[in-house]
Amino acid sequence: MGLTVGHEGGAPTGAQAWRAPSVLERGLYEAKVRGDWPAYYDLVARADLFMMQSKAAVDANRGTSRFHPYWNPQTGTYCLAVYTAGMLPPPAPDPVFNGYSLGWFAGVWEPGDPPFLVVNPGSPCEGVLPAGPEARELWRRHYAGVEQSGLARDTVHTLEVGGPRQGHVAFGLAVGAHLSVRNGRFWNAMAYHGDGYTAERRILDEWWGVTTRQDWLDMQETLLSARMVSSTWRFVLQLRRGMALDFAGPVDAGHWRTAAVQVIRRRAEEAAEPVLTPDGVTRGEAPTAAEVESEVDGVRRLIGRITRYEARFRADGLLPERGYVRAVEAWDHGRASGMARWGLAARLCSLQEAEAAVVRAGRLAHAHHRSWEGFSAAYLLGRCLHFDGEEFGESYETALRVHRVLTTDPASPWRTLPWA
Q1: What is the phi/psi pair of residue 48, to 5°?
Q2: What mean pLDDT, rounded, does the chain reach?
Q3: Which of 144, 176, 191 is the last residue of a domain?
């Protein structure tokens, strides 16, 4: 089934003190030790396999991939190296790594390509896979039952080696855990590669319009400053939070609407008052009556939406009885943690810059919320207001599922990292 040159039987040399970075590499190692190559191939078939690429070549030839074989003295041949996610080095300006599947390699391999594919070369979980025609049929058979390669979605994945699990960086990464768990990523991978350089560049472009370093800097600051969150969302939630403090308890929705309308009308009146400037007295630029009424109607509808979402949140256990969402900045701060890692994977920033942004996201989230559960409810409210449209459909259900995983799984950072 497999060739392990230099490791015939027993544990690989030096492996006794080796700690696998994640459950995947541990599974590869254990399968190798017991000589269970079908299990080894199954794990490889389900994994993302990252191949080193020249950044200049990738940038010049988008959509193409080139093999970079290396000489392997154990096989006495050239081999092609691939790495599982836990074995990748920290992102560097060059080279970059792109992610592929075993099925992809089986389909593109040509007669002149190296005779071996080496998984995690030089490590105790290394596997040297023959790459001849019959061997590639074996790759295909193992890959045939795989619906999607990579780590499972909606599951907590932790780097046991190479990722922070305590401290400010870990806290900031945990603020982005909604995204990590949903997308099947190591929540604590600060040295982040994601789906690989090319895929991360494409996703940033398609979803965020981020293609340059300056784009990333601007977007990162926008998210950290919570400027993507609607100012109207922030206004109504800040108003209710102040009222709750004044009345020492929950605020009735009708009272909340009335107060919001009063504030809007008062602001409009104040805008019409004369203003003293160095050039003299100038007339204020007040909104028209139609504009004021439009804003009033919009705020009334928004408060209705928020109260209905919160009622559903309480029914689903996202909020306690009589609980409410204090602030919605979590929607931006959670994404800011993600944006820091995405920018690093796309080589738009350095590891140090990404880490600083992650730490800042964590501090901002901590300043606005009182618990992981409260942060999560706020994050979900922002996500629902943006995407869901009160359908309580897939967007809501997936976010609810991730919330439950993060608040109940003993391996979740929300269970291992204290909020206080």
Answers
A1: -75, 135
A2: 92
A3: 144
**Same domain for 287 and 394?**
no
In a domain, 7, yes or no: no
Q: How many domains does the chain have?
A: 3
Q: How far apart are CA 87 and CA 110, in angstroms?
A: 26
Return the amino acid letter for 220: Q
Statement to judge: residues 411 and 352 lie in one domain: yes
In a domain, 313, yes or no: no
Q: Would strands 70-72 and 77-82 be described as parallel, antiparallel, or unpaired? A: antiparallel
Find out whether 183 and 378 touch, Cβ atoms under 8 Å. Answer: no
Q: Is the dihedral of CA 181, 45, 39, 52 positive or negative?
A: negative
Distance set, CA 346 to CA 59, 202, 228 (Å): 11, 9, 22
Is residue 7 a contact partner of residue 31, using CB atoms and an 8 Å limit? Answer: no
219: helix, strand or coil: helix
CA distance 111 to 75: 18
Supply the pTM of this predicted model. Answer: 0.91
Do 135 and 180 fall into the same domain?
no
At 13-30, the pLDDT tens digits run 444 578 999 999 999 999
Q: Could you give phi then psi for residue 71, rounded to 5 degrees?
A: -80, 125
Give the integer Cα–Cα distance in Å for 186 and 183: 9
Report pLDDT digits (tens) over 162-182.
Answer: 999 999 999 999 999 999 999
Dihedral through CA 202, CA 205, CA 210, CA 211, nearest 10? 60
Are 356 and 294 in the same domain? Answer: no
262 and 392 both lie in a single domain: no
Give the CA diameter of the chain.
91
Vertex 24 angle, CA 15 and 37, to 5°? 75
Integer Cα distance of 39 and 91 in angstroms = 30
My answer on whether 53 and 96 are in the same domain is yes
Instruction: Give yes or no: residues 213 and 343 share one domain.
Output: yes
How do strand 127-130 and strand 116-119 relate by DSSP bridges? antiparallel
Q: Whole-angstrom Cα distance, residue 391 to residue 159?
A: 36
Going by C-alpha positions, the residue among 104, 145, 99, 127 that lies closest to residue 31 is 127
Domain extent for 100? 15-144
The H-assigned helical ranges of 184-288 are: 197-208, 213-224, 231-247, 253-272
